[in-house]
Amino acid sequence: MVDSRIVITGLGLTSPIGDSLPEMRTNLLEGKPRVDRIPMRYMGDVPAGVCRYDPLKYQKKKEVRIGTRAGSIAIFCANEAINDSNLDWENVQKDRVGVYVGTTEHGNVETENEIHNISQFDYDTKFWSHHHNPRTVANNPAGEITINLGITGPHYSIGAACAAGNAGLIQGLQMLRLGEVDVALAGGVSESIHTFGIFAGFKSQGALATHDDPNKASRPFDLDRNGIVVSEGGCLYVLERLEDAQARGANIIAEVVGYSINSDATDYVLPNPERQVECMRKALAKAKMAPGDIQIVNTHATSTPQGDIQECTAIREIFGDCPDTFVNNTKSYIGHAMGAAGALELAGNLPSFEDGMVHPTINVDRLDPQCELSNLVLNQPRKLGNIDAILNNSFGMLGINSSLVVKRFTGG
Questions:
Q1: If the chain, 412 residues long, is cut into consecutive pieces of 10 residues, what is the mean pLDDT of each piece?
Q2: 155 phi and psi, to 5 degrees?
Q3: Staple 77 to which of 12, 23, 137, 309, CB 3.0 to 4.6 Å?
Q4: CATH number for the domain whose boundaries are 6-247
C-alpha cells in the first residue's frame, strides 16, 4: 500500500466567509472579506475572523457546553465532510477510520477562562470546572470527533503551529498508505480568537494587525501591512485510497500527489526562505512534477512585514521563470486561521479545477516591491484555461514548513 494513490472524496469547513465550500468560493471570487471587531479581555476591541456555523447541527446543547470550541468546530467539519463524501457511514467499519486534526495550540482558552472565573471567587479552586482536563488535553479536537461519530480507530491532534492543517492531511495520507486505516478524516481546526494570550503575544511582538476598517486589516504583500488578523475556523477532508474510492463509485475531488515538511532550525519566529525553498522542492519531487507544472501557488503570507518578504523570496527562486504559474493568498479575506489555515486555504482553491479561476489576493493598494512576484493575482480573479495542479504552502513558528501538491483527478 506504500505506493497507493490518495484522493480527496469529501470536505467540510467553516470559515469567516462561509460554512460551505460553495459559499466560501463565491466570496473569494467576488472579493468579499469578513473580519469583525470583537471585545478581547484586557485589550478592548480587536479585529478577528469569526465563524458563524450552527454548533447544534450535530451536537446537543449539553455537549457543546461540556466540550470545547475547537472540538465543536471539528465535529461540524467532520460531519459535513462525511456527508459530502457520500460514504455509507452506517456500514463503514469504524475501527478502520482514523482522525488526524492539526492544531496550533489547544487548552489556552479553557485555562484562561477558568483562571478568570475563579478570580471572581478569591481563587477558590472549588469553582474550577471538573471538565477542564478533557477540554485541555492535546488530543481534544480529534477525540471529540470520535465520540460524536462513534469512531473507534486511531485519533490524535497534530501540533504543527500554523503548518498544522497541511500536517493533518499529510498524516492521514501516510496512515492510509501504511494500511493502518481505510478512511482518514484529516485537516485542521483553530479556536484562537477566544484566547487573549494569542492577541497579547502578537501585539507585544509588534505583529498584530491594526486598521480603521477590520476588513482591510489583513493585507498580505501590501506596503502598509502591519500584522496578523487572528481567525478561527476549520476544514477536514475525507481521504481514501484511490482503489477504495473507485470501488464505491465516489466522487473524487482531487488527488494528493506530493508533500513535504521540514524545519528551519534557525529562529523562533523569523522564517528562513532557504528552508522554504527546500520544502517546496521536495514536495514537487514527491509529486514528480516541475515548477512549471503548477498553475496555482497558494501562499502562507500572514501580512507581517518580514514574513511576507521571506516567502516571496522563496517563491521567486522556484517559480520566477514559470509564466503559467499564478500566485494568490486567502488570509486577506479571513485573517490567519492558525492550525486550520493550510486546510482552509487549500479548500478555497480546489474549485479552480472546475471553474478555471484563480481567486485574488485582496487589500493590496500598494504592492511592496519586495513582495513583487510574476503572476501575483491581485484584487480581481484571473481566468485561466485548464488548472491541473496546486501547491499549498503553510508555515509556522519555530520554523516548521509544509508544502502540499494536489492535482485534478483525471482517472486511471
A1: 93 98 98 98 96 98 97 98 98 98 92 94 95 96 98 97 98 98 98 96 96 98 98 98 98 98 96 98 98 98 97 98 97 98 98 98 98 96 96 97 97 74
A2: -145, 145
A3: 12
A4: 3.40.47.10
